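tool_log.txt
---
The assistant was asked to compare two proteins side by side. It first ran the structure predictor on the initial sequence, then on the second. Raw inputs and outputs are pasted verbatim so the downstream comparison step can read them without reformatting.
(1)
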Amino acid sequence: MRKVILIGSPNSGKSLLFNRLTGMHQKVANFPGITVDMASGPMQSLPDVTIVDYPGTYSLQPISGEEEVAVEHFKHALDDPQVVHVLCLIDATRLEKSVYFMLQVIRECESHGKRVVVLANMMDILKKHQISIDLEGLAREIKAPVIGISARTGIGFNDLVESLNSDINLDEKSVDSGIAEVPDAFLRGTAHQLARRYGPKGDILIKSQTRLDDFFLHSVFGGISFFVIMYLLFQSIFTLAAPAMEGVESALGWVSDWVVPAIGSQMARDFTADALFSGIGAFLVFVPQIFVLTFVIGILEDSGYMARAALICHKPLRVFGLTGKSFIPMLSGVACAIPAIYAARSIDSPRKRLLTYMAIPLMPCSARLPVYTLLIAAFIPQVTAFGGLLGMQGLAMFAIYFFGMASGLVVTGLVSRMSEDHYADLPFVLEMPPYRIPAWQPLIRNSWNRSKHFVTKAGKIIFAVTVVVWILGYFPNFGQDLAASWLGYLGLWIEPLFAPLGLDWRYGVAVLTSFLAREVFVGTLGTMFGIEGAEENMVPLVAQIQASGLSIASGLALLVFFAIALMCVSTMAIMARESESNTLTLKLFAAYGLAAYGLAVLTYNVATLFS
């Protein structure tokens, strides 16, 4: 099996190119630190050629832990006899920055006898603005083939495949470009000369980016636009997902009305109605919101705004001991904590990386979203204005999300002031990528894959928990009296623990099962309410909660509890592995659990007093 290495700097379009060449679905985003692991896959056009994608790096002289991993593995891979080509991806719109890295790659490959093919990406952008670039002249100068491509549109892919498929090229050794012994200081000067001689003429792209940055990075308008964009993000979770949620709920009701009466066995009929349609069905209703959340965040990433948001947040985050680079993992935690923990690898400072680990569990992840949505829908009126852009439920969602994020900042701020800093921090450096129109097809595919992964990953846990809850609640009296079932006895035993929150035993059981996965809370409640009212098992879960007598004070207490309590066991496992500390993970679990319970009790009492 022949191997081809794909290497490039962040924001060069490397992951998008990898996806097009292999047909895989690696995460694509427009900010540094996304490719945190090496990915590999066979080329669709050349199945006997495996493409290996390395994390993006700005130089072969690494300054961060992530770059060290990329450079170390790249140099090690050059000794592999199966590696026949190195694809060095450069950004044709920012040639000077890319050419210096390209010259380093060529120099390293020469010493190992590997051929380099340079891929000048973003040719579609140059063509759109009618800007020319002398790729032939650059190829003659560096004595290596340079192919103009567009990872977004597929321009130049036939030339790339033809080059890789050429037996002559595969058998040839690298050509001496004359830079094998040139030090980095001289390479920088050479890169500047090559970019000026062969690069795009004119600064129309820089002027366009500068005009937008003057607004989005403005000291006043930048902050206002940041909060407006974040609010629209959370409001869209309700506004855009509502039709799909209603469609899923109607479809489940239709299928239930058709399937349940056709089942002969009473026990099987009860299990299908109560466990499957009421339990798992209650969870599936919220999947469209996961899709919308991932889609909107993807727009922010692909458009180039996410890096600006990180820059805007750098100064206020410094107050809490963090860096602007912490914003990217923290916002990624809004989708899922596991990739957010991985993304924290891009933080250069070990201390700030540790503080980011502590903040990520408090970010309102998508697993919490069904719980938030359920409780907000049960207690917050659905009042909207301006065509759905402004609404009470959206404001409530924004508030609980902001509360979780603010709690994370408070924790890191306290810890950073209570502990000594034994690390010398590196300066905050963040590349501002160009503004781009998102690639809609990969964006939709990624949102779909994220939603599907959410269902398949959480669905297994929810199904297992739902079956156990249904068995405990159905026996020994076959669902005649839930309070007299095995589940009822267990719930009554733990009920005193949740009594200070105004919760009965049913909610206590749902909270305990949610430690496997937060979204299990919804499925557990759906299962129990289905058993309690089997003849009305398809009544929306929101109506069931409202009819159960749960007070708004208890609902607010539950929101606070879920916002603070440490997330699922899988997140704890990943955090222990990434931080290389089981002690840290266990301490966070205990501390956040106690803090969540205490704040929930306080919220319940204050809300009861005012109500």
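(2)
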Amino acid sequence: MIVSGTVALVGIAVTGGAKPLVGLDLAQTGHWIYNSALGSAFHVDGSGKQADAQVSLPGADPGSRVVQGPTQGYAVSPSKTIEFGKSTLSVENSTPSPANEWPATVETKGGPYAVYRESGIVVRLGEGMARIPVGGRLGDPVATADGRLWLHQIDNGLLCELAPGADRVSCPIAIPGRHKGSLVVTAAGPVFVDNDDDTVRGVSSAGFGESVRLGVDVPDTAVAASTDVDGKLAILDRAGARLYLVGSGSPVTVPLPPGDYAGLASSGSVVALVDKGNRTLRTFDGAGRAKENRPIPGGAEHPPVRGPDSRVYVDGADGAHVLVVDQDGAVNEVPVTGVPKPADEPNPVTPPTPDKPADKPADKPIDKPADRPAVPVQPKPQPQPVIPASPPGAPRSVSATPGDGAATVKWGAAAANGATVSGYRISWAGGEKTVGGGVRTTSIAGLANGTAYAFTVTATNRAGTGPGATSGAVTPRSNVNPPGAPTGLDVRIKTGDTDANVTWNAAAANGSPVTAYHVSWRRADGSGAGSARVTGRSRLIPGIGIEQPITVTVVAENAAGRGTPAQVTKSSGDQPADRSIVISRGADTTADLCDPPICGLIHIVMTGFTPGKTVSVTCVTDDGVHGSKSKRIGPDGKLTFEEFPQGTEGRNVWIRADGVESKKLVWK
């Protein structure tokens, strides 16, 4: 079928282990997380289930995301990238970000990479660092085992590849109709899951492979895990709260509880989903069976990520907790704790070297009376450094949903930065509202229907107010519901033709404009099935034939979702009468060696043809073919015109078009 086997996201050997708080072996293992309150990045050993190294990152932005290469680590944010050594655990460089946005990160051979999706820029970090423009918005990137990066260029409908060490991308694949979808790495290589026609195709430098139907109707907004799970594609329908598992055998649909799902990742045998709304990690096996349902300590803001060791890591929003999902589905919580140290202070433990043994107490006898026991020396407690408070970070993932004269605004917790968040302020054009520090969603009333609003949320603690984060613009509308069923659905196949012309009338908008119609069809025996997304109100289905009845379904879609479907089944007996061509003498004309009154045009009337179809019309005489013209049939299946000058009395003339032939006319 589509995919098989268990596939790692990147092909990197997992060897070695970490040394506690001194420096890591150079193998690319585990997962790094930035703790804003402590100002440090921590390495989480997935196999040992512990944080085993810490590096202070002065100047790092709250919420920085940490990605690693073989020898270096990088804390990336919308403002800068801070580079540190994995063996020295010290900052080595800082560079400004090429775009003011959170990048997606990929750990793979030749990388790692930071992909700025809105700006269309890829930055290769590490040795041979390069900024590589791709152009236009990008989807979520994936990497194959050889380090080849694949990118979905959304605006231009292209799939692009970036080879290890290359300084430019190649875009060998054009997606039909610029369809929406996701890239996934499988055992057979990368594939593209097409959300518009519900298919999956293999991807290579040579182009697309054969198209295979998914067997489920996924919405345009669905996303797929970047790697398969037990040989199946894992596809998340956020709006419909469903998880699809597609592979060999029948597709599996897993209903999900209502929630705000941040994303999904696969460990190879289980798929992990982060539910931000309920601050929960949910895992399922390849058969769709629920495995774990665990709260995420510190809050749920980040999507799960697959590490180079094939484990899935889920970061708490506070940067102080990580949930580790093993390949077998087991989930363990790893606390990320420590204290900040001054930037010029060495690491607390000095590793032994051949010429300097490890630190140890000096051998010194203790003088004491023989008849009095020794009194143990109690170490004096050392005061813990006080972390100075600073204003909170920007709230995460601010979003808004329109209602009737209202909107619902949601956001994730802002980094506290040393002092509890006491409140959030929501502002928009024409107003503002303040809520408590424990609130993550609020309703805004009194808005004007038909007017677009964007909402900015800021957090406040005792140190002040932090930076704001803004939602996308939304437009309140009254009574927004999915569209009604399209009316007047009709299917016509002319006798002698094999193409079906499907037409319908507009569906009721129900408060939000209809943005698309989804058309699907199949023959009575199930063969010839297909689907398409169109923005008009007609669709030509080529080659469907009339040997057996065909069933066509049309569903309208607007901002509230898909509406009620309309369906019709047509058989050969329902089709219109035969096509016909009738000719007669037309107006006089002048042509080469042809003058009135003998010279004239042929008056041609065509009826019963496929509306909108372009056909070749040929004039034939007793002497042979006299000429051909391409003509487009009218919307009513008819066409009337005058063409082909004639000037030979007594000669037969007739017209052929699309397999239909007129009667012969004796010219006079």
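---
observation on (2): The chain has four domains: 18-335, 396-470, 487-574, 580-666. The chain has a mean pLDDT of 84.
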